[in-house]
Amino acid sequence: QIMKQVPVRFDLKSLHIPIYSAEKLSSMKDMDWNDFLQRVCSLLDSPEKSTGAARSKLNLLYYLCTVAVHKEVASKLISSQLFPILIQQLRSAANWDIRAKVARLIGLLALHTSELGENVPVSEAIILLTELLRENFRNSKLKQCLLPALGELLYLVASQEEKREHPRECWAVPSAAYTVLMRCLREGVRLFHC
């Protein structure tokens, strides 16, 4: 059963970066894009030592979710240094709300990316999501956050491999990912749709 996510809203005043529309981000010159990305990565990579810091990071993730629905922006973000930072946040963020929003952002990036570079660490994200699902298998709320991201990444890999004239295994998908996915589906988890 698919449950619709609530619309994402972010607080403009508490974002510590310039607020650009998806259209503006997609048409930015390289230098401006790199500056923007550097600020985003720096904020996401900072520790959540206080409630305010965690709230600020969540607000940034909400903003990124709103621009990730634009195909060009999603393709640029997933191929940038942001994606490894998202994986790292998914692995080690102390706050599970942040992990849930990171998983949602990863799912949105995978859903809206039109072109995936071979050097994007998609396999690492798939392995991590699989491990987190396995470790939290009895926690249906966490499964609702993690499973859509895993599904979108698997679909992205399959569609990218299908596009290639001479498909080769750029992104290894462990069989455990399919096993965990099928087990979740058999047990009838309610899913959030990105």
Automatic annotation (TrEMBL):
Top-level lineage group: Eukaryota
Signal peptide feature range: none
Protein name, per record: ULK4 kinase
Transmembrane domains' residue ranges: none
Keywords: Kinase, Transferase
UniProt GO molecular function: kinase activity
PANTHER family assigned: SER/THR PROTEIN KINASE ULK4, SERINE_THREONINE-PROTEIN KINASE ULK4
Keyword Kinase appears in the UniProt entry: yes
